[in-house]
User: Fold this.
Amino acid sequence: MKEFGKGFPGNQSLTNKKLLFGLWETADIICEIQINCKFTEFINNKSNVLYIEQESKRRQFFYQFSSFDAEHKILRGYIMSTKKEKWTSDNIPNLDGKVIIVTGGNSGLGFETVKLFAQKGAEVVLACRSVEKGEAAKSTIGKIKGQITVMKLDLASLENVKEFVNQFKAKYERLDILFNNAGIMTTPYGLTEDGLEQQQGVNHFGHFALTAQLFGLLKATKGSRVVNTSSTGHKFGKMDFNNLLYENGKEYTPMNAYRRSKLENLLFTYEMQRRIEKEGLDIKVLAAHPGTARTEIGRYAEKELWFKLFKPLIMLATHHNAYGGALPQVRAGIDANAKGGEYFGPDGYMEQKGNPVVVKSNKASHNEQDAKQLWIESEKLTGVTFDI
Ligand SMILES: NC(=O)c1ccc[n+]([C@@H]2O[C@H](COP(=O)([O-])OP(=O)(O)OC[C@H]3O[C@@H](n4cnc5c(N)ncnc54)[C@H](OP(=O)(O)O)[C@@H]3O)[C@@H](O)[C@H]2O)c1
Assistant:
């Protein structure tokens, strides 16, 4: 409990936190406010007027210590605590008229993302490799305000990515948010239809080709966003441009290829944001990770002995449900205060679960040299270039 002026969080940035104000005499909390600046900046701004209800009277006061007591007699304010802001699906605004694509929308985080946005009125394209699975998933979603359209998208086939884009463009004239969410994890060594190592092929290269071909529509839509789903696993990812695709399985391990693909998601995010800023375009590119969420992503790991042994412990200690896991990417897609190049994840222990907030990715993910090289390789390997 800190009195105004004494040990106050003056220069502390209070982004993502709420301040609780209380009465000195009774210790009643009188209001909760959220500010997204340093506290000193907030109280020095005279336009920050707050109305409160107390003892049935409507009162007005400024957050200025000097005039506070003298003017209103009754109140001496103090901060009881700083409370973390909770961001939930209630924060999603009305989305009537917005068009959104979610890749891998039939399962896990993607499914939750489709549901939340459709409930808020958006027209959501549930992009999935099996239309049957997509329709089945759609049929489990109850009443929605918006619309869900299932469309086939197989990220392991560049031909199919192109087909998807053509069909999408034939139907829609705008694209507000593109969620590059689909992914596979720790699969045995294998290749996509185009001969790319499959984890990187689906998780990064397929999404790169998709985003590049939808770029014209993103540019044409005011305030559009791209959100790439990464993972805390990126922290162990290593780039090796001499053997980017683990040719013929050389040096391939299921986990390392997954981690590399998740590092690529972030290199791509930051590089695209840099290029967009340079051109002054009205598009934001962000990334997110879910922590660990109960979805189908572990279907390959689940066969491993270590996973079988530790599964109950892992589930208990770290996992949240798919809804909780989806919130960081949902927030990255829709929070009006989110900035291009930000990365969202849960705020709990080791970012495994919790409230969605801005988090930091590792140094390797900000390596501009690697990001540029990956961009060049991605254009070469997919045969698709960005009009940027
Ligand atoms: N869950 C976690 O703990 C966790 C942790 C870190 C990061 N992530 C990331 O979160 C994202 C979503 O995963 P999730 O946890 O929701 O897993 P999930 O339940 O397995 O969902 C993955 C989705 O991706 C789709 N997909 C796979 N290959 C595809 C392809 N070739 N073309 C198009 N779609 C394809 C899947 O379709 P099918 O159903 O047809 O297979 C499914 O819809 C992934 O990028 C993953 O790396 C998850």
Notes: The first helix runs from residue 39 to 44.
